[in-house]
Design brief:
The protein is α+β, with helices and mostly antiparallel strands and 116 residues long. It contains 2 helices and 7 strands. One of its GO terms (cellular component) is nucleus.
């Protein structure tokens, strides 16, 4: 039996160099963000300089699979899913930690003008 698929349309606010054609893709519900990033990179002919992308539908961020996203949106696989994509931004790396003594053990306020 063939895997269930969902119709997906990709949209973005990124510059034109990162915009894919207005095409509806028929994708397996098991598709992950990594697979979708590969699809976007392939559509943009960017395999040599592949970039990861983040995906969301409305306020829901795609973290696992399209199937899980459909469930969280209470949609069936027959619906056409519009996925917004943006460049994936890694969290900043901490280069060096500031060495500050922990001389403040606790702060307590008694009324609006007294701190202990």
């Amino acid at each position: 039996m063939a895997e269930t698929t969902v119709r997906v349309r990709f949209v973005t606010d990124l510059p034109e160099e990162f915009q894919v054609d207005d095409t509806v893709f028929d994708l397996p519900v098991s598709s992950s963000p990594e697979l979708l990033s590969q699809l976007i990179n392939s559509s943009l002919d960017m395999e040599d300089a592949a970039r990861p992308f983040d995906f969301r539908s409305g306020s829901r961020i795609l973290k696992t699979t399209l199937g899980a996203l459909l469930l969280s949106l209470d949609l069936s696989s027959e619906a056409e899913l519009e996925l917004h994509y943006s460049l994936h931004v890694l969290p900043p790396e901490l280069d060096a930690q500031a060495r500050v003594s922990d001389w403040v053990g606790a702060v307590s306020a008694i009324g609006p003008s007294h701190c202990l």
